């Protein structure tokens, strides 16, 4: 402190009077000079300020050494300094923390599962912002864990936000093989058409014969080939004769009807009507003749 001195000003009619008072009190000053009439300036140690003011009540300190000035200002602004001391570490803490975790995707179940995995990996609000290496490690782990369930996945960081986006895996659409033309495989009356591709040549209510063209193929613009795809349902009639071992009339009827249904009906046909045209028993054999009216797809590709 002895090395640095403050600058003082004092008003007096006589500089000699000032210097004598300083000398009488064994005080050390330097650079004593007149600034203007009756105004003098000099340098002195800060520790002597009280003694100087005692002998010169009008003494005014106009400049202190830097470190003294600095600590004086700190003393005047204690609350501001305290606020800075508290806020700076808090600001640093917030700058190194995750603020928000945003997950967007097209499946809520997968979304919650991904959120759980991220939380397990300490990627969550107010956790420390991960390094690029950590982010890549978590990204690869999720891709491996959800390998066959995700079509796409992205994990990014922007400021304090972690942004996750994904799409659930969707199986590819398999288009049916298209055929050139469809013909009637048996006689019948058209009841309905289920056409996906091609040109229909029949309509509901038309009677068609076996071999008749039902659906003609369109000309495909890409491969220039005639293509068609669809179904043509028709009401058809069939007669059938079945036999079984003669037991009794009730058993015979049930057995013969069951045999006939199995021969005529399948999963692609619908029974409209069934008539028993004839029933007879000959010794150990029972015989039945039936007439069926059914609806079925009669279109066959060629």
Average pLDDT: 85
Q: What gross morphology would you assign? A: rod-shaped
Structure summary, number of beta strands: 18
Helix residue percentage = 25-40%
Our estimate of the beta-strand percent is 35-45%
Query: Tell me about the biggest sheet?
Result: 5 strands, antiparallel
Helix/strand-derived category reads: alpha+beta
Order of strands across the widest beta sheet?
11-9-15-17-16
- How far apart, in Å, are the first and last alpha carbons? 112 Å
Rg, alpha carbons? 53 Å
The number of helical segments is 7
Order of helices and strands: EHEEHEHHEHHEEEEEEEEEEHEEE
Ranges where pLDDT stays below 50 over 5 or more residues in a row are none
How many structural domains are formed by the residues?
3
